[in-house]
Amino acid sequence: MTALTLRLRETLPLSVDASVLSPPRLAGLTRAKIEALELELGNRSVRVGELFDVGGDDWDNVVIENATECLTHLGAGMQGGTLLVNGDVGAYLGLGMSAGRIGVSGSAGIFAGCEMVGGTIEIGGNAGDWLGGALAGDKQGMRGGLIQVRGHAGDRAADRMRRGLVLIEGGAGAYLGSRMLAGTVIVKGSIGPQPGFALKHGTLLLLDGATELPATYNDCGRHELLFLAVLERDLRLRGGLEAFLPLPRAVKRYCGDLANGGKGEILVSAMR
Amino acid sequence: MNVNGVAIDDTFAEAFGMRATRIVITALDSKWALHAARTATGFATSVIACGCEAGIERELAPEETPDGRPGAAILLFAVSSKELAKQVERRVGQCVLTAPTTACFSGMDGEPIPLGKNLRFFGDGFQNSKVIGGRRYWRVPVMDGEFLCEETTGMVKAVGGGNFFVLARGQREALAAGEAAIAAMRRLRGTIMPFPGGIVRSGSKVGSRYKGLVASTNDAFCPTLRGATRSELTPEVGSVLEIVIDGVTDGDVREAMRVGLRAVCDLGADAGILRLSAGNYGGKLGQFHYKLRELLA
Known about the structure:
The complex is a heterodimer. Chain A is mainly β.
């Protein structure tokens, strides 16, 4: 069996909700039925066969070739399987996904991993704003799983995040972990202003060391926290996360946001 | 049956179904991990009065523990799920949480019972949880830093009460044989010998002539009562010691008994070992039977 491959023929003038092009939703469909699936392109419907060349027969492994930011909602609601995307993707990558793996070679638009509850998203390039966040009006963002971004993340990454792990290899924009409820965010590069704004619980681990923190965070001193050793072991077992390893043994702990209960923390590496 | 001059009684050990869990205790160094492990498994020789039977299964190298520090695996056995959960919470709360630099993790998969789930409240609201790799850990602030404790540990059905008796010419011979057996059995995994040094001198029978006592001395194997009771001992037997084994599985107990019996037989009659026997209740109470002659065949 070879991976089910959908090759985008040409750049689209408008965005397309491509949520149907994920492994579980294509399972059991013949090539003809896949080509007959309807997508919304602007205010009209188009068939998959009009936009993509379809090949392969392994529904558990779907590959999208020549992808652009016009493809939105890729992997939304995904419940298993593997979705690999060569190129960039638009907004809402992996929205609400519960299992499986999404890999994107390029960059992702806003709300990637938004409200996901499980599974893994790997973004080779940059991620837009609201990575792992919550949809407007919703109370909880990401509730499980792992997001890895090799480039930079935009503003408000992990907004209202409830559980899970976000790893950002580049930097992150403003308001990292804003209104966060729990979970762990690790950023290797530099970050924008106001990290942990209104953060309630959870951990922001900043590996870049010196960072200006909001006034609503209090210095709790330098500590060796054992949970970081357990976390490091988990990252090693997952593989592919060497860029973040080893995690610092010693960190400076800042508790906050004191304007919102103060039960969360920003940990800043004390090794560099 | 006779092995190396040691008579093997045509009898069997009778053991019971229990509930068990394995807990991994780590610390800054093995000294403190063992301090905590020994304390947590103290006063846990028999479910008759201790609530559970517990012991150190083995020491763990740093690469075997979740946090990469030296540690020890302990096993706890109780007669019911409820009692095991109670004992785990009390012992970890009083003996591990209190020990400097320690952390505590589940050592086996199974039906979850609380480990740090309730102990976290010691943190008085300052505790934090972390879900890592699908497992929840509690970070409880304590005066030396943080006590890290997994939320639950796994509980499994297990076996308690495997046993055998060493009948020797005197105390020294019986004790030397018991120590040899324990040394061999401690190399195995999945079992503990919960009594002091792994050896029991006060083997018991069910019931007593006194009301309220559920167990009393096993007079049939007491050498000083040879002429006063229905003794199982021949005149040359001067001392009897028992080894009790609890295991995670039936196979673990069976293998530990085999290894222990074999170690005693290797000493042989020249070392003053006369007979090997075992304790049972006629086969009507315990669901696990271990026939000595089969184990040594």
